[in-house]
Specification:
The complex is a heterodimer of chains A (121) and B (166). With 121 residues, chain A is mainly α. Chain A is 73% helix and 12% strand. Chain A has a domain of 71 residues: Arc Repressor Mutant, subunit A, CATH 1.10.10.10. Chain A has five helices and three strands; from the N terminus they run ααβααββα. Classes of the chains: A mainly alpha (121), B alpha+beta (166). Chains A and B meet through helix 5 of A and strand 1, strand 2, helix 2, helix 3 and helix 5 of B.
Amino acid sequence: MVQYNETRLDAAFAALSDATRRGVLEQLSRADASITDLAGKFHMTLTGMKKHVGVLERAALVTTEKAGRVRTCRLGMRALEEEAAWIERHRQLWSARFDALDKIVEHLKCKEKADARRKRR
Amino acid sequence: MPEGKEGNPAAMNRTAVERKADRELVVTRTFNAPAHIVFEAWSKPELFKRWWVPKSLGMSMLSCDMDVRTGGAYRFVFRHPAFDQPMAFFGTYREVTPHKRLVWTNEESDQGAVTTVTFEENAGKTLVTLHELYPTKAARDEALAGSAEGLPEQFAQLDELLAGRS
């Protein structure tokens, strides 16, 4: 599962200490946006917005993905939720398999013990 | 459920899943039996087919051909009620080291993973580590992607499976 360590939390709080970055998060909670969109909404240069997004990205609050020439930003929490859902799907498959395997292994073990006992007699 | 005398019994039968790096999946679980027994259940088709497709997946295994030796091939055919045609999964065993290690390819698509399973025995118990290495991050992220819809049903069947144990 996703680990929150102190470094990550420190980075998150540092990222949230800036009003523009909080605004960017609020904006992204409504819809994904490109860096160009965000720069326009916050009356900022592209370079300035890239820096802010970089800080949010390092704090795992935002993820970005480049498609062609456009870099799209979205809330990091959604990426974390997707990761958690992915892990849960795989955990269910493997738990089900391994629970079934556990039964068989247990059965084989009992059988081996019984065979050994029979031989000793 | 048989519980180990030492350690945390609840932790022992837990299946752990994690994503490692960008292209990997790692699953671990400890079984309460020596490695040769656990390995047997992975390498004999008549045993393997009893657990690889648990009832909770809603699928049935139509055939299970396994030539478990280095360079040998395997082919599993499943049927799922949602699909008209059976599905085949196949590949090659790259490495077979009895009671220790199995490596196989998944060749049904070019995005298939290479699966490595290791068996580590310690004090009569066996730690199984299954590692899947996908060709790309996207292939790993998409593995099982379509199965989300079936979850509630899977939960119910899993409960049934677990209830049957006690």
